[in-house]
């Protein structure tokens, strides 16, 4: 059952990415759009488009009923959720399934399991994948202090229903933990609708390395190697690269094998990402993202695969187009996230009109963006407006290519993170590939601005 | 008695309350001091508190909860 038509339940560059994959596979694509996006690129390039509501995300792209109604009225046979918005809501995937449509992703039950931190850790343990030392859910301050004796300080208090780095609080001692647990429970309850929290050992300067997997409905699972994503601010990634520099081949194999084991264990289907923290020779599973990832282009660069096309083929019931031995990596790729934010003003969001735009090009340069000159970046959605991804045969050449492409890149009318990336590529830890998850925030505090 | 209008420093979506289930920051008739939070504007998934830039009594909300607002838009009218 090959897919014939797909509702693209997203906006911006990822919606355009999915529309493009559909076009190449001969699948009819139907975009959805809010008031603010009536003339957006993902709407213009899709075969059809359905208006789903007002501009604010909760009244459009986060409105599951409106998106489902659009799918029904457009007569599609599948829904691609992209990333963010409804992509990791088990209730949305379940509603798509119940409507008799195909959800381009894993079964809703798998999203539910991997979206629950405690359940995800249990899956990892049963797949013999190491997890960060941590506790079960704790219900009181006394309970937490007792659990922390086992876990070891410093600890992080995390919301069971949290994600994307939200709902995490550190505590270095029992006294601090008593206060933090109560605050964390209150915050989790209002932010996520569940006050459940647990403890985890706080590692000292680990690296964030994640493994891309693909799994079909016939039981095959392959990995597509890893991505290094440690350059983060407030747990939001800003620059990613593949392969991860400084990873021994033994550790790389162990990580990739662990990701495949875990995905098989949970009955995964589709494209997914297994995230790990790596410290020394040890690695620990932290979570699985059950969707396509923002930074998927760098994996596409080094493997030559089209991950979104694979998603669509898998959803249509086809077997993976590759066996593990066919997935070969070559060269090095780096992605730079271009956000409408002002790095000189504490990353203040900067919606507004793009009055001028010049995109980089030439060998080994790929830009994923839905933003054109004259477009207005609305204030209602994520600040990511473009992704620049470069590839070269070696990491050193990829860095040089990144510098060259960033020098060509010009956005007028609003501040972006392009200048930040230019400065980052002169930073020794980035040049050497020796950074960890603390590097970017430390550098931002210490470095002169402007 | 004069009047003063609090405006939005950023475009986005205006909220009367810190979270959907919480009580509103202020209601009409409430007195506020300079610096008190009177609302929240969400811009690109970040939240910015709207502070009273004068003391007074809230006479009127000029936008509804979850309304889309533009930069500089009038949000709350105070009697000063």
Automatic annotation (TrEMBL), chain A:
<keyword id="KW-0067">ATP-binding</keyword>
<feature type="domain" description="Biotin carboxylation">
    <location>
        <begin position="2"/>
        <end position="445"/>
    </location>
</feature>
<dbReference type="InterPro" id="IPR011054">
    <property type="entry name" value="Rudment_hybrid_motif"/>
</dbReference>
<dbReference type="InterPro" id="IPR005479">
    <property type="entry name" value="CPAse_ATP-bd"/>
</dbReference>
<keyword id="KW-0436">Ligase</keyword>
<dbReference type="InterPro" id="IPR005481">
    <property type="entry name" value="BC-like_N"/>
</dbReference>
<dbReference type="InterPro" id="IPR011764">
    <property type="entry name" value="Biotin_carboxylation_dom"/>
</dbReference>
<feature type="domain" description="ATP-grasp">
    <location>
        <begin position="121"/>
        <end position="316"/>
    </location>
</feature>
<dbReference type="InterPro" id="IPR005482">
    <property type="entry name" value="Biotin_COase_C"/>
</dbReference>
<dbReference type="InterPro" id="IPR051602">
    <property type="entry name" value="ACC_Biotin_Carboxylase"/>
</dbReference>
<dbReference type="InterPro" id="IPR011761">
    <property type="entry name" value="ATP-grasp"/>
</dbReference>
<dbReference type="InterPro" id="IPR016185">
    <property type="entry name" value="PreATP-grasp_dom_sf"/>
</dbReference>
<dbReference type="Pfam" id="PF02785">
    <property type="entry name" value="Biotin_carb_C"/>
</dbReference>
<comment type="function">
    <text>This protein is a component of the acetyl coenzyme A carboxylase complex; first, biotin carboxylase catalyzes the carboxylation of the carrier protein and then the transcarboxylase transfers the carboxyl group to form malonyl-CoA.</text>
</comment>
<dbReference type="Pfam" id="PF00289">
    <property type="entry name" value="Biotin_carb_N"/>
</dbReference>
<dbReference type="Pfam" id="PF02786">
    <property type="entry name" value="CPSase_L_D2"/>
</dbReference>
<protein>
    <recommendedName>
        <fullName>biotin carboxylase</fullName>
        <ecNumber>6.3.4.14</ecNumber>
    </recommendedName>
</protein>
<keyword id="KW-0547">Nucleotide-binding</keyword>
Automatic annotation (TrEMBL), chain B:
<keyword id="KW-0276">Fatty acid metabolism</keyword>
<comment type="pathway">
    <text>Lipid metabolism; fatty acid biosynthesis.</text>
</comment>
<dbReference type="InterPro" id="IPR011053">
    <property type="entry name" value="Single_hybrid_motif"/>
</dbReference>
<keyword id="KW-0443">Lipid metabolism</keyword>
<dbReference type="InterPro" id="IPR050709">
    <property type="entry name" value="Biotin_Carboxyl_Carrier/Decarb"/>
</dbReference>
<feature type="domain" description="Lipoyl-binding">
    <location>
        <begin position="3"/>
        <end position="79"/>
    </location>
</feature>
<dbReference type="Pfam" id="PF00364">
    <property type="entry name" value="Biotin_lipoyl"/>
</dbReference>
<keyword id="KW-0092">Biotin</keyword>
<dbReference type="InterPro" id="IPR001249">
    <property type="entry name" value="AcCoA_biotinCC"/>
</dbReference>
<keyword id="KW-0444">Lipid biosynthesis</keyword>
<comment type="function">
    <text>This protein is a component of the acetyl coenzyme A carboxylase complex; first, biotin carboxylase catalyzes the carboxylation of the carrier protein and then the transcarboxylase transfers the carboxyl group to form malonyl-CoA.</text>
</comment>
<keyword id="KW-0275">Fatty acid biosynthesis</keyword>
<dbReference type="InterPro" id="IPR000089">
    <property type="entry name" value="Biotin_lipoyl"/>
</dbReference>
<dbReference type="InterPro" id="IPR001882">
    <property type="entry name" value="Biotin_BS"/>
</dbReference>
<protein>
    <recommendedName>
        <fullName>Biotin carboxyl carrier protein of acetyl-CoA carboxylase</fullName>
    </recommendedName>
</protein>
């Amino acid at each position: 059952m090959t897919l014939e038509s797909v509702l693209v339940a997203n906006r911006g560059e990822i919606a355009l990415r999915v529309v493009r994959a559909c076009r190449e596979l001969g699948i009819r694509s139907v975009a959805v759009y809010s008031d603010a996006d009536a003339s957006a690129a993902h709407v213009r390039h899709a075969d059809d488009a359905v208006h789903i509501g007002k501009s604010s995300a909760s009244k459009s792209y986060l409105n599951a009923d409106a998106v489902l109604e659009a799918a029904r009225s457009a007569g599609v046979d599948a829904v691609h959720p992209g990333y963010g918005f409804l992509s990791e809501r088990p209730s949305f995937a379940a509603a798509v399934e119940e409507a008799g449509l195909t959800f381009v992703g894993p079964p809703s039950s798998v999203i539910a399991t991997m979206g629950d931190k405690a359940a995800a850790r249990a899956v990892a343990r049963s797949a013999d994948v190491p997890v960060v030392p941590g506790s079960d859910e704790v219900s009181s301050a006394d309970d937490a202090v007792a659990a922390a004796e086992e876990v070891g300080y410093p600890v992080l208090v995390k919301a069971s229903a949290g994600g994307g780095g939200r709902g995490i609080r550190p505590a270095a001692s029992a006294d601090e933990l008593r206060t933090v647990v109560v605050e964390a429970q209150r915050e989790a309850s209002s932010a996520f609708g569940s006050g459940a929290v647990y403890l985890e050992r706080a590692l000292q300067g680990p690296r964030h390395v994640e493994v891309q997997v693909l799994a079909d409905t016939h039981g095959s699972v392959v990995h597509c190697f890893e991505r290094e994503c440690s350059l983060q601010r407030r747990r939001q990634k800003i620059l990613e690269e593949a392969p991860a520099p400084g990873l021994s081949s033994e550790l790389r194999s162990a990580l990739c094998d662990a990701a495949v084991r875990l995905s098989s264990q949970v009955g995964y289907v589709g494209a997914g990402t297994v995230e790990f923290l790596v410290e020394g020779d040890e690695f620990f599973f932290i979570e699985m993202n059950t969707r396509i990832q923002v930074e998927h282009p760098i994996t596409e660069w080094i493997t030559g695969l089209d991950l979104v096309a694979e998603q669509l083929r898998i959803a249509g019931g086809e077997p993976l187009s590759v066996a593990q031995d066919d997935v070969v990596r070559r060269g090095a790729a780096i992605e730079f996230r271009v956000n409408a934010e002002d790095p000189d003003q504490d990353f203040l969001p900067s919606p507004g009109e793009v009055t001028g735009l010049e995109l980089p090009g030439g060998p080994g340069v790929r830009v994923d963006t839905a933003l054109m000159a004259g477009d207005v970046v609305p204030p209602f959605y994520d600040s990511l407006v473009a992704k620049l991804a470069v590839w070269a045969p070696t990491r050193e050449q990829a860095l040089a290519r990144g510098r060259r492409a960033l020098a060509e890149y010009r956005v007028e009318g609003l501040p972006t993170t392009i200048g930040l990336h230019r400065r980052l590529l002169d930073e020794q830890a980035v040049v050497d590939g020796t950074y960890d998850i603390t590097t970017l925030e430390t550098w931002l505090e210490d470095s002169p601005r402007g | 008695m004069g009047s003063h209008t609090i405006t939005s420093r950023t475009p986005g979506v205006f909220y009367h309350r810190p979270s959907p289930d919480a009580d509103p920051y202020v209601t009409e008739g409430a007195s506020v001091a300079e610096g008190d939070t009177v609302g929240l504007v969400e811009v690109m998934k970040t939240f910015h508190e709207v502070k009273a830039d004068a003391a007074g009594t809230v006479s009127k909300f000029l936008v509804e909860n979850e309304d889309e607002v533009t930069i500089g838009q009038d949000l709350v009218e105070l009697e000063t």
